[in-house]
Amino acid sequence: MKLFRFQKGFSPFMISNPHSGVHIPPEIAERMTEAGLKKRDTDWFLTRLYDFPAIERAAMISANTSRYVCDLNRPPDNQSLYPGQSTTGICPKITFQREPIYLEGREPENGEIARRIEHYWKPYHDQLRSELDRLVEKYGFAVLLDVHSIAQKVPMLFEGDLPDFNFGTNHGRSCGVSFQELIEEFSEAITDFTHVVNGRFIGGFITRHYGSMENVHAVQLELNRSTYMDEETLEWNFDKSVEVLPVIEMFVVTLMKWAENQLSR
Q1: CA geometry: angle at 218 spanning 215 and 221, to 5°?
Q2: I want to staple 13 with a disulfide (CB 3.0 to 4.6 A). Which of 58, 132, 205, 223 is the partner?
Q3: What is the CATH number of the domain that holds 99?
Q4: In angstroms, rounded to a whole number, what is the distance separating the alpha carbons of residues 193 and 247?
C-alpha cells in the first residue's frame, strides 16, 4: 500500500497529518503486544475532521502507516523534542500509557530503526519538503498546519486534563510576528472550548523544522480527542463533533484568509 496520501496544492496553504495512519505491516504486527495492536495513540478521524470545501485547493499529506511503526513527527536522529520530560521515540517502544508496544525481546534494534526511517520517514518528508519548496517558489511563502489529536488525560506527559485546543508555534519561532498574533487572537476568541498557545505542546519536529525555513509559517494544532469521539470505544461521536467542527473550519479559514492577504500585498 502507499505510505501516504498526497494532494497537490493550488494555494499557499498546506496541511500535514502524520499520525492518523493505522496500517502495520504483518511482519511487525506479529511482534506487537495487544496494546500495540490497539493503536490507541493514533490521531483518530483527522481526515474526517479536516474535510470541508474551504480546503479543496490546499496541499495535503496524510500518513497511512501507524505512528507505532515510525513516528513521522520526530527528528531522524531521535533526539527528544522535550529534553528532561517524558516522550516517545521515532520507533516508539511504549504507548503514552506506558504499556509495551512489543513483546519482550522483539523490540526494533538500531539497524531496523534506521531502515524504518529510510523506508517510512524519509519519503513523507521528501514529499512535504518538495511541496513546501514549490509553494514558496510560486507564492513567495507558505502556511503549514500540522494537525494532531490526543487523549484528554495523558499522565505520562502532563497532570490533569489537556485543554481542548492546543496551538504550538515553538514560542513564535516557527512563524512570523503577524502570524503568531493571528494564532493568539484566534485562541482568545474561542469561547466554548478550553485553549492554550505554546503550553505543554509547542509543536513537534514538523512544526519546528519546516517553520525554521525562510518564508514558511508553521503551526501545530493538537486537538483534545474528547471533543469529537468516545475515547473508550474509539468511535466517532456525532453530538460532540457538531460542536467542534465549526471551530476547526473557522481556524483553517482564518489561516487561509491571512495567506490571501499576504498575496494581495
Answers
A1: 170
A2: 58
A3: 3.40.630.40
A4: 9
